[in-house]
Design goal:
Elements (H helix, E strand, L loop, with lengths): L6 H18 L1 H25 L14 H21 L1 H4 L2 H7 L2 H6 L4 H7 L8 H15 L7 H32 L5 H9 L11 H14 L4 H11 L4 H31 L6
Helix pairs in contact: 3-8, 3-9, 3-12, 9-12, 9-13, 12-13
Length: 275
């Protein structure tokens, strides 16, 4: 009988191997870090420029300069974790299918989704996580509102929920590669969809914005990813915000379940390189 693998030990080994690989090519790692932090600094500069001309993102939304920087830091936390742990692997999933290398993953005595999702880490992406910590600290120090310890704990929970929602979408997009053969547009589609999560949901209003807000809250819950945790830290939580938080937790569990089912369905449709 095959012993049950120690997933924590396997995860740690994946992390160590990826770090060794990055340190083998240190200049490449340094350049990747500089590129990541440069993009974030340019984003911050862009929003600083916007706040030279307005006091809020969206009139009457309550997302002033420092509230929005909490929102921006929250998005950086989530995106840096997704890009570090999942994006390098899922972007290569279609190539594993096309070349038949997925056969070797299926033969290993470990959960295939775990192996496919976490075998490589991109440590340079975590430089944005460190930047987000600094930005969050500065933003919170300039707010009149002070989150409680309970809200801070929920903030960490909903950061994890945001990562899980993005991961679920990524699994669904990656699973399509089994039927499509190649899915090289994964990153492009990912970028287009997740762009909607970069702004507070209040700005999606009116005849065009309201349908977008409803679609990306209930059909594809992208707007929940950053909005819920950012509200916990940036402003007092209203009754409707607690309902939104409860829905976000349910949507996360449902998304993880649905993406798991779709991944298994994709594997059942997979035809190995030898078939």
């Amino acid at each position: 009988m095959t012993p049950r693998p120690n997933y924590a030990a396997v995860f740690a080994e994946f992390a160590r191997n990826s770090l060794v690989r990055d340190m083998t090519f240190r200049w490449n790692f340094i350049i990747d870090c500089i590129s990541s932090i440069s993009w974030v600094v340019m984003q911050l500069g862009f929003y600083l420029l916007i706040f030279e001309y307005t006091s809020e993102i969206g009139s009457g939304t309550g997302w002033g300069r420092w509230q929005f920087f909490v929102f921006l830091a929250t998005g950086l936390f989530i995106n840096s974790l997704v890009q570090a742990f999942f994006m390098p692997n899922m972007s290569e999933f279609s190539e594993l299918i096309r070349t038949g290398q997925l056969d070797f993953a299926l033969l290993k005595p470990i959960d295939t989704q775990f192996l496919i999702s976490l075998r490589k880490f991109e440590w340079s992406s975590l430089v944005n996580f460190a930047f987000a910590l600094v930005l969050l600290g500065v933003a919170l120090s300039n707010l009149d509102f002070r989150p409680t310890a309970f809200q801070a704990a929920l903030y960490v929970l909903y950061i994890a929920c945001g990562v899980a929602l993005f991961y679920s979408l990524m699994i669904v997009l990656g699973s399509l590669s089994v039927w499509l053969g190649r899915n090289e547009s994964l990153y492009d589609f990912w970028f287009y969809i997740t762009n909607f999560s970069r702004y507070p949901m209040e700005i999606y209003s009116g005849p065009f914005g309201t349908p977008l807000r409803l679609a990306f809250t209930f059909a594809i819950p992208i707007l929940l990813v950053v909005n819920v945790p950012a509200r916990l830290m940036a402003k007092p939580f209203a009754e409707q915000d607690w309902r939104l938080a409860a829905y976000a937790l349910a949507a996360t569990l449902l998304s993880l379940f649905a993406s798991r089912k779709m991944f298994h369905a994709a594997l059942l449709s997979y035809r190995s390189a030898s078939s």
